[in-house]
C-alpha cells in the first residue's frame, strides 16, 4: 500500500493521467493540499471525482500575505465549514 501524504498534482495539466498512473502503481491515498481559495476549490472537486484523492484545504503563508484580513477570514470560514461537512 502506498500513500502520498502531501501532493499538489492539481498543478499538472494532465491531472487525470497523473492520478491514473498513481493508481496503476498501487497508490491508494493521495492527499491533495490546497494553497489558496482557487486551489482549495480544485482539490475539493478532485476529491469528489477520484476515489483515491482526499482534500486538505489551507492557506499557504505566501498566499496569505496577498490577501486582506477580510479575505483571509472568509477563506478560513470556508475551510471550517467544509471540514464540518
Estimate the strand proportion: 15-25%
Structural class by helix and strand composition: alpha/beta
Spatial shape: elongated
Q: Largest sheet, order of strands side by side?
A: 1-2-3
Find the count of extended strands (DSSP E, 2+ residues).
3
Overall pLDDT score: 94
Major pleated sheet: 3 strands, parallel
Helix run count: 4
Helical amount: 40-55%
Low-confidence runs: none
- Radius of gyration, CA atoms, in whole angstroms: 14 Å
Entry keywords:
85 residues, 4 helices, alpha/beta, 3 strands
Architecture overview:
51% of the residues lie in helices and 20% in strands. The protein has four helices and three strands. It has helices at 15-24, 37-49, 61-64, 69-84; strands at 2-7, 27-33, 53-56. The protein has a three-stranded parallel sheet. Strand 2 (27-33), helix 2 (37-49) and strand 3 (53-56) form a beta-alpha-beta unit. The radius of gyration is 14 Å and the shape is elongated. It starts with a strand and ends with a helix. The model has no long low-confidence stretch (mean pLDDT 94).
